[in-house]
Amino acid sequence: MQCGVSELDTLISSVLGFLTEYSWVYAFKWVDLLSYAGNPAADPVLCCPAEWKIALCSAEVRDLQSVVLGNPSPATWPASLKFFARQCMSLSRRLMESSSCIPISANQPTASIGHVVAVPSAGYLAYATLQLPQHDVDAEDSSPLQDFRIQNPLLPSQLQYFVEATEMEAFQLPGLIGIDGPGLHSIQNCRQGHGLVKIDAAGGEEVHAPLHVLLCHRVEGAVVQVEQVVDCSRRHALEPAMLMDAYRDEHPGSSGRSAEPNVGGLVDLGSGLGHLPNYVMRMLSVVNPQIPRPRLVAVEADPIIHSRAKELEDKKVSPNDRILRECIRVTTDNLENLRDRFRAHLSGLSVPYYLLCGLHCCGDLSVAAINLFISDPNAHSLALIGCCYHKMTAQMFPLSAMLREALTQRCGFSALTSTVALRLACQWSPQQWCRWSHLEVHQHRIRVFVRSVIQVFFGPHSAAPSPKLREIVRINPLNWLTDDLQSANLLSVNQPLPNLTAYWRALQKIDEHCDFEALQCLARTQAAVELWRLLPGILALQQLMQPLLEALILSDRVWALRESGTPYVTLLRLFDPLLSPRCMALVAER
To answer: Residue ranges of the domains in the chain?
Structure first.
């Protein structure tokens, strides 16, 4: 699935060219939409082609949501709009393919419920707990697996995304933990059967099961023996010796992997209250109590949360097995200090290497984690889920030399690295937006419209800025509507402006200097009406663009790790994007 250098250069050029041409779709602030009116460089209403406006303003909400999910565009849409939708999907998929590396392992005598699942039509890999048929699977058979069910569903039922189980290919990771029931719950009993370790679960807290399983698998040392970049259609069943020969060919000087556990600890960055390491510790103690307890280190920057985590610690656990906690901020400026601390925690272990992980590491923390992994030879593996890309400082994106050079050739292309573009990359997932009801879409439309009017009238760049702007924006316009939205027919995007008279008068009571008549006139100008008509369409265009922007950010991190010489790097879908929109993990191993 990984691209060659020239092919990757071509892909990056195509992506940046597309993002440059359609930067008007994402390079704006929603609150400033009406402020941009008439500006040919910033107004999305003005930049949107006339034929697109006709199609988007006359569409039904379900049509917009259907296209975002990857279904064919309505026949009445112009060819250029259909191309835009297809290209968003295609480029997103190609980026994910270029950043996905299928793990290869020798056939195991026993099955495993933990699997890396390849989804060719969507271009990504996912990690799932699967119930596979109890018969041998011929690795040379390229036909899809027909008879398995997902115990812990990770994959949405829609595509980009649209995938039926029969389209998937499963790549077995030996030694993984099997889980009965949806998700991981409080563990009550553990048993062995048919070569599988199974955990009986009773009702209790639900957590992100795949991440816990993945981490436990890695900490135990039951790792994929060899990872190679392969094409799904050209997989072969290899004996272990052949695999090791292939690995040495790919990595000269390597002696291959030992059968012994290769990580002695786990370091969790941004650990918060420590739920993740706590659960990993509990799982390991139940699943395989014979193995030595790994060293688990929880790192948290907030001293209050750090103290609370220590209070919640299970006092019944032996002091030697307790989680080690560090209260320190992780930045790219203190990596040497962090390396020394982790080395001290792992001293005395027969295996001084650790798995570095982070669940939803915010902003610069994700970049610091990647740099820590690159710079610390004791960091054997990485499992990282980032979030809040818009909180990254300017120098943190792009991270790879490849993308930096490509952007430099385009004079920096500031729109891509702007806060608004990075914010779009980490907003709700397309799957979540497509679950919105017609009423929710309309309510969001009203709030955005009202907020843009307020920004023009009361904002800091208005003719008369209001000192009470914070109070004004807290007033919910939906509470002042005289229209009955519950009984309204909201199937179509073509809806009249709501009656907001009562709401505008309510704002006048907060700021006595507010000119009610002028405010109401502003909301009825031609620019405001055009914005109102196009708002759902603009939102749909952004939902098409969101996966592409996020795929580029995540791929940039993969490329940076590959540039550092890390042998195995991939993106791996861990969570259901309906529940956790930041569902992709960056997985790496030395």
So the answer is: 5-96+432-545
